[in-house]
Amino acid sequence: MFQHETVLKHEAVEGLNVRPDGVYVDCTLGGAGHTRLIAEHLGPAGTVIGIDQDDAALQAAHERLRDVGCRVHLIKSNFRRLKEILASLGLERVDGILFDLGVSSPQLDKGERGFSYHHDAPLDMRMDPEAPLTAREVVNTWPEAELARILSQYGEERFARRIARMIVNHRRVSPIETTGELADIIKDAIPAPARRTGPHPARRSFQAIRIAVNDELNAFQSALQQAIDGLNPGGRVAVITFHSLEDRICKRTFQEKEKRCVCPPDFPVCVCGQQPVLRVITKKPILPSEEEIRENPRARSAKLRIAEKL
Ligand SMILES: C[S@@+](CC[C@H](N)C(=O)[O-])C[C@H]1O[C@@H](n2cnc3c(N)ncnc32)[C@H](O)[C@@H]1O
């Protein structure tokens, strides 16, 4: 069973302004929560394309979309190859693109994938089970300074340097193999008073290592650019983020693409090179309601931003 509670489902799909005969891409298919709702807005001439790098998600989505009335393409790939994926389907431009970033609940909850400190499992954390880099390799081979950097930047972990030092001290004795071992090392590295408050002491570090293993920020930055390039005029991109760095990438990219020409009005031609490409629909991000957060606590850090291609 693939149980993932879809976040900001109606807000995101309404934000795409789905036309019954349009072509829409869900870059983060997961359990197809958003994709199914998009498909329900489409007629027989409409198309929805779902991309995921996780085979389990594709399998679940296949079941979930069995009875929809539009054309469906499900593709196993990293969304950083978005342009190539569209070209392989004979498409250059589409009418809407969605990103619902991060991991799905089954990835987190299925202990054996090594994403969670709640289950003892081999250190893995790959969303794509065939990808070359695992959490085991990051934890056991990356230099101490690089570990400290990712823990601090991607995890906003204030004890990043202490944790990195402890990891390196442990792996000198023997390799760190499991999520349980890693969680214990992190716990020991954090001073006792800080351990007693807030979320699980390993939460930030596990998030940071997962982001590094899957190269999540670079993949998103590249895919967002390709998404904007690949929209028809009037087409929309909707992005749900769960991490401040992802949200910053989205916000800055949208702002950059909205910039207008700043040449003086008497210049015969534009020399600044700035022409707006997007209109930002959400000046402030859309957040989940208190009710949604109560029903699905994993929605609490979600932010939805939407922009329209000019
Ligand atoms: C939050 S879940 C999406 C849930 C989905 N919207 C739903 O309602 O069921 C994110 C999904 O995106 C996938 N994913 C994350 N980064 C990806 C990438 N770079 N390329 C392809 N899939 C990715 C993950 O494997 C995961 O299944």
Automatic annotation (TrEMBL):
InterPro entries: RsmH (IPR002903), SAM-dep_MeTrfase_MraW_recog (IPR023397), SAM-dependent_MTases_sf (IPR029063). PANTHER family: 12S RRNA N4-METHYLCYTIDINE METHYLTRANSFERASE, S-ADENOSYL-METHYLTRANSFERASE MRAW. Specifically methylates the N4 position of cytidine in position 1402 (C1402) of 16S rRNA. The keyword Methyltransferase applies. Belongs to the methyltransferase superfamily. RsmH family. Pfam families: Methyltransf_5. The keyword Acyltransferase does not apply. It comes from the Bacteria. S-adenosyl-L-methionine binds at A32, G33, H34, D52, F79, D100, Q107. SUPFAM superfamilies: Putative methyltransferase TM0872, insert domain, S-adenosyl-L-methionine-dependent methyltransferases. Keywords: Cytoplasm, Methyltransferase, rRNA processing, S-adenosyl-L-methionine, Transferase. It comes from Polycladomyces zharkentensis. It is found in: Cytoplasm. This is Ribosomal RNA small subunit methyltransferase H. Its main location: cytoplasm. It catalyses: cytidine(1402) in 16S rRNA + S-adenosyl-L-methionine = N(4)-methylcytidine(1402) in 16S rRNA + S-adenosyl-L-homocysteine + H(+). Its EC number is 2.1.1.199.
